From TrEMBL, chain A:
<keyword id="KW-0597">Phosphoprotein</keyword>
<dbReference type="InterPro" id="IPR011006">
    <property type="entry name" value="CheY-like_superfamily"/>
</dbReference>
<dbReference type="GO" id="GO:0000160">
    <property type="term" value="P:phosphorelay signal transduction system"/>
</dbReference>
<feature type="modified residue" description="4-aspartylphosphate">
    <location>
        <position position="62"/>
    </location>
</feature>
<protein>
    <recommendedName>
        <fullName>Response regulatory domain-containing protein</fullName>
    </recommendedName>
</protein>
<dbReference type="Pfam" id="PF00072">
    <property type="entry name" value="Response_reg"/>
</dbReference>
<dbReference type="InterPro" id="IPR001789">
    <property type="entry name" value="Sig_transdc_resp-reg_receiver"/>
</dbReference>
<dbReference type="InterPro" id="IPR050595">
    <property type="entry name" value="Bact_response_regulator"/>
</dbReference>
<feature type="domain" description="Response regulatory">
    <location>
        <begin position="13"/>
        <end position="129"/>
    </location>
</feature>
Automatic annotation (TrEMBL), chain B:
<feature type="transmembrane region" description="Helical">
    <location>
        <begin position="179"/>
        <end position="199"/>
    </location>
</feature>
<keyword id="KW-0808">Transferase</keyword>
<feature type="transmembrane region" description="Helical">
    <location>
        <begin position="143"/>
        <end position="167"/>
    </location>
</feature>
<dbReference type="InterPro" id="IPR003594">
    <property type="entry name" value="HATPase_dom"/>
</dbReference>
<feature type="transmembrane region" description="Helical">
    <location>
        <begin position="237"/>
        <end position="262"/>
    </location>
</feature>
<feature type="domain" description="Histidine kinase">
    <location>
        <begin position="305"/>
        <end position="521"/>
    </location>
</feature>
<keyword id="KW-0547">Nucleotide-binding</keyword>
<dbReference type="InterPro" id="IPR036097">
    <property type="entry name" value="HisK_dim/P_sf"/>
</dbReference>
<keyword id="KW-0067">ATP-binding</keyword>
């Protein structure tokens, strides 16, 4: 990954695009305990704006989202040269293989089915991804 | 078609439709799963009734005495219907082994009657004579009556067993048998109408042509697969049958119409009407095909949406559990209670997976083929059911040593392994033993779960992989189960060229569920 590894690290920042406040809240609490700063966007449009502005180190992305659908968000992040190198983890409750394949093909770095993964496991995966 | 009586043509036409229906039904069932012998038995049944119907059609069109005698004589083929019915019924109710002698006796007696008739045709059919609108029809010799007694008697024994089984069966099995009984009743009642005229009862055999209807209830019964599928498959079978019958009728009408138009309207070529009809048929066919695909997609989408809606609140519960556990501190009661909520919730999540998996019975999604470590999956499953295992004080083990990896879809195999382990845990009484084995096998890798649990009765062993089927003892032990796990496991393995099975010495004697998958090349 070409994420900056500057030594007196400004805290590593994560944008979580998720319309369910509970999931957003739980994840940001756990991530902040792990030393990350998390910003939650409640819909696809807001998420895209936040990613463009903040240039986070990683994006967590739900698929079923208001305004702009998750797959579209992923497509736009990956087609913008300024954001295309940011790793994106898809967190969804759609578990069909087609969705998984499609998002991975679009450039997602990981796919997690929320119902089948504990938030702590997602935090572990993020740690591994960000090194 | 000059000299034929109109009534005769109606009877013949109706029988042609009936024959088409029988043929379509037989082939349809056979191709649903040509590897199952019950489907071949059903094909034997349809082939014998088809032969009877076709021979009836040919015989009724004969105007020459010798030809008519020959074709009507072939009515002796009825004996094959009885053989097929008897064998088929005992197979359906799983009493083939106990009634082996009777099935063999039915075959030998039938063949005996058949042989005697060929040696002495006059015993069977003294002569053919004009009856009603038939140029010639059957008369009954002594041997014809022997054949009839055999034809009606032997299936009666089998039907008695079928009805007895019906009264002792439950659930989906009972429903299945209901359809078989209905099919036999329809087939026999209608089929026998043709005999009345043989004995000079002036009953029009046109109604005998309705015999093909017996296929409609049967389509329901034979598919012991998923309930969702049953509905779908039956609807399809029904549409096939109806469309083929309609096509047969339509073609006849078309030939008549074409002949009429070519003769009366100047300028119309013999090919004009068929070409127009072919184009119309193509357009209609395409529209119907699209409609059918659309319906299939909608069904899948509906289940996907429903599952997604269910999963959101279930995920909330799951995600809240770790924090609740941490907050419960040393409070043992609270801790235990939260664990139970977690287990119940995970079970519901599991059910959403099953629903998802069951909603697309193949074709829609690819299966991956990657090396899968079945031992790892076994340990994962043990971890998942750790609470129940420790509560029931089960001794659970996985055989030590290296085992080859299997080739398959990891996510689906996780589900299969979980189903087998969960069943073993669920249906083994406290203090029992569960042994998981992964070992090379000449077909690949064999995964097995052997327990000291409630076991499976011999007659249930075949049905246990059917959807919504649950053995009586399984119902008593666990009232929550739905009977989908094993059928899903079977489906997943079928899709990957695997096999699944069960061995059990009987009720209460434990059971070993196993599956075999191709091994991954090392």
């Amino acid at each position: 990954m070409d994420t900056p590894q500057s030594t007196p690290a400004p805290r590593t920042r994560i944008v979580y695009i998720e319309d369910e406040p509970f999931f957003g809240g739980t994840m940001s609490r756990l991530l902040s305990e792990a030393g990350y700063t998390t910003m939650v966007a409640a819909d696809g449009e807001e998420g895209l704006a936040m990613v463009a502005k903040e240039k986070p180190d990683l994006v967590l992305l739900d698929l079923v989202l208001p305004k702009v659908d998750g797959k579209e968000v992923l497509k736009r992040i990956k087609s913008d040269p300024a954001t295309k190198n940011i790793p994106v983890f898809v967190l969804s409750n759609l578990s069909a293989d087609a969705d998984q394949r499609e998002t991975v093909a679009l450039g997602a770095a990981g796919f997690f089915v929320k119902a089948m993964t504990l938030p702590s496991a997602i935090v572990e995966a993020i740690k591994r991804e960000l090194g | 078609m000059g000299g034929f009586d109109n009534q005769l043509l109606v009877t013949v036409g109706a029988n042609i439709i009936s024959a088409a229906l029988i043929l379509a039904g037989g082939l349809f069932v056979l191709f649903q799963n040509p590897r199952r012998d019950i489907n071949w038995l059903f094909f034997f049944l349809t082939a014998s009734t088809l032969a009877y119907t076709v021979l009836f059609i040919i015989a009724s069109l004969q105007t020459d005495y010798a030809a008519a005698y020959f074709w009507w004589f072939l009515n002796i083929f009825d004996v094959f219907i009885a053989m097929a019915v008897v064998h088929f019924i005992f197979r359906v109710i799983n009493r083939e082994r106990q009634w082996r002698w009777f099935i063999i006796a039915t075959y030998t007696t039938g063949l005996g009657i058949f042989a005697v008739a060929w040696l002495n045709p006059a015993w069977f059919l003294p002569s053919v004579v004009p009856k009603l609108y038939f140029a010639y029809y059957l008369t009954a010799g002594g041997w014809y009556i022997v054949m009839l007694v055999y034809f009606l008697g032997t299936p009666l024994v089998a039907a008695g067993n079928l009805i007895a089984s019906y009264y002792t069966s439950v659930g989906i099995e009972r429903k299945r048998l209901e359809y078989f009984i209905l099919m036999l009743a329809i087939g026999y009642a209608i089929g026998c109408l043709n005999f009345l005229l043989v004995f000079d009862v002036p009953f029009d055999p046109v109604f005998g042509a309705l015999m093909g209807l017996y296929l409609i209830p049967i389509a329901y019964g034979i598919f012991s697969t998923n309930l969702l599928d049953i509905r779908l498959v039956v609807r399809r079978a029904f549409y096939y049958a109806i469309s083929i019958a309609a096509i047969a009728g339509f073609l006849m009408a078309l030939i008549l119409l074409n002949g009429f138009l070519v003769r009366t309207v100047p300028g119309i070529q013999f090919w004009t009407v068929p070409v127009i009809v072919a184009i119309a048929a193509f357009i209609i066919g395409r529209a119907v095909w699209k409609q059918a695909r659309e319906a299939e997609k909608l069904k899948y989408e509906f289940i996907t949406i429903a599952t997604h809606k269910l999963r959101t609140p279930l995920t909330r519960i799951r995600w809240a559990i770790p924090e609740l556990l941490a907050a419960s501190g040393g409070n043992e009661t609270l801790h235990k209670g939260i664990r139970r909520i977690d287990d119940a919730n995970n079970r519901l999540i599991e059910l959403t997976n099953v629903l998802m998996e069951a909603s697309h019975p193949g074709g829609t999604y690819d299966y991956q083929e990657i090396p899968v470590d079945l031992k790892h999956l076994a340990w994962e499953a043990i971890k998942r059911f750790a609470t129940q295992i420790s509560e029931k004080k089960l001794a659970i083990s996985v055989n030590p040593g290296e085992a080859p990896k299997a080739l398959g879809d990891a996510r689906r195999l996780t589900l299969v392994v979980e189903v087998l382990v969960e069943n073993a845990v669920m249906y083994t009484p406290a203090g029992g033993t569960v042994k998981i084995g992964v070992a090379p096998n000449r077909r690949g890798v064999r995964f097995s779960v052997a327990d000291t649990g409630i076991g499976v009765k011999r007659e249930d062993q075949e049905h246990i992989f059917s959807s919504f089927f649950r053995t009586t003892s399984a119902r008593t032990v666990d009232t929550e189960g739905v009977g989908l796990g094993l059928s899903l496991a079977k489906r997943i393995l079928d899709r990957q060229g695997g096999r699944i099975g069960v061995e059990s010495a009987g009720e209460g004697k434990g059971s070993t569920f196993w599956f075999i998958l191709p091994a991954a090349e090392e």
